[in-house]
Specification:
Elements (H helix, E strand, L loop, with lengths): L5 E3 L2 E3 L4 H20 L5 H6 L6 H4 L1 H8 L2 E5 L6 E6 L6 E5 L21 E5 L17 H14 L5 E6 L1 H12 L4 E7 L11 H7 L10 H11 L3 H17 L1 H13 L16 E6 L7 H10 L3 E6 L6 H4 L1 H15 L1
Parallel strand pairs: 5-6, 5-7, 7-8, 8-9, 9-10
Antiparallel strand pairs: 1-2, 3-4, 4-6
InterPro entries: AB_hydrolase_1 (IPR000073), AB_hydrolase_fold (IPR029058), AB_hydrolase_sf (IPR050266)
GO molecular function: hydrolase activity
Keywords: Hydrolase
Length: 337
């Protein structure tokens, strides 16, 4: 039996699928609750903000010299996009996308385990890291998906295997749903976008307007790294290296968080359940940001999905357990090329 088509002012609106409803409800529930509490961000602070060179980006020449990573860019100023690239153009393309409050360097631990297999592309997503931030642009998931598709097309990548963590996972899923001819395989790693049947303390805090992903003082940075890492030693190390940069970006990151929640994906377009690419749903069982039950929703909705779970790992498997994470990605992608 076909679903009824809703009509508005003489226009036909396609029936809303279960997956689209879930995405919309998620942004209703989490986004609207947070935005009711969110403080206004000074346009002057955003306009006057300038990036600085911090510890992670200083590693690029050193690490690149070791494993042959090349830093590339397209565009200029506030509209530039910067990425790391390794491998031959003739090799299968592998796109790695970071999450919120993260950067391209978060994927570096995986690179030695992919040697010679892929053409690897690791962007700083627009607005993040070394890529440009323009406060007059929008940074919703819809906007970012279009930018990523345009960038891949510009650099001549027409077929790609996509891996996305957290916010990058939501973008990876939307890219696969909206541009199925481009995405060969998909890995959703602790991905944003669907509600589970349980919520983490972090999500409950977001509903009250608190956001541990945007630290404003050194102690807040430790709370952030404790949130995303299950390994305490890694959390302390990450806090030490990232504190200055995260605090410097506090107003920009607040703006980007509000953009992500306020500019929700268009539910009349393809969403996660429309993904046709073979999909690996990868999750840390101890994820304190996005509950493990979210993984089972992705697996349920996506037709060709399989699961890979890591014991004793939090929100960032590529940093907490790089070798098993890389092996799982490599085996899955090579099997589905």
């Amino acid at each position: 039996m076909t679903k009824p088509v809703r009509k508005t002012k003489g226009k036909e609106i396609p029936p809303i699928s279960e997956g689209a409803k879930l995405v919309d409800q998620y942004f209703d529930h989490v986004g609207e609750a947070f935005l009711r509490h969110a403080p206004e961000i000074s346009p002057d602070k955003l306009r006057d903000w300038r990036p600085k060179l911090f510890s992670f980006t200083r590693l690029n020449p050193w690490y690149g010299g070791l494993v042959g990573v090349h830093r590339k860019r397209i565009g200029a100023g506030k509209d530039k996009l910067v990425w790391l690239e390794i491998g031959h153009e003739a090799s299968p393309a592998l796109l790695l996308m970071h999450g919120f409050a993260a950067a391209k360097e978060h994927w570096l631990p995986l690179l030695p385990f992919f040697a010679g297999q892929f053409r690897i592309l690791i962007p700083d997503l627009p607005g993040w890291g070394e890529s440009g931030f323009n406060p007059e642009h929008h940074y919703g998931l819809e906007d970012q998906t279009e930018r990523l598709h345009n960038w891949l097309t510009q650099i001549g990548v027409h077929k790609v295997n996509v891996v996305g963590n957290s916010m990058g996972g939501a973008l990876a899923g939307l890219l696969a749903a909206r541009f199925p001819q481009m995405v060969t395989s998909l890995v959703l790693m602790d991905a944003l976008g669907l509600p589970g049947n349980e919520e983490t303390d972090f999500i409950r805090e977001v509903l009250r307007g608190k956001n541990r992903l945007v630290p404003r003082a050194p102690m807040d940075v430790m709370k952030l790294t404790d949130l995303v890492f299950h390994n305490r030693a890694l959390a302390a190390s990450a806090a030490f290296f990232s504190a200055t940069e995260l605090i410097h970006r506090k107003d920009v990151n607040s703006f980007l968080f509000q953009e992500m929640l306020s500019r929700r994906p268009d539910y009349t377009k393809a969403t996660f359940e429309d993904i046709t690419a073979p999909t690996l749903v990868m999750w840390g069982k101890e994820d304190a940001v996005l509950h493990l039950s979210c993984a089972y929703e992705f697996e349920r909705l996506i037709k060709r999905a399989e699961m890979c779970l890591f014991d004793g790992v939090g929100h960032l498997p590529m940093i907490e357990t790089p070798y098993p994470c890389a092996q799982a990605i490599k085996e899955f992608v090579l099997r589905n090329i």
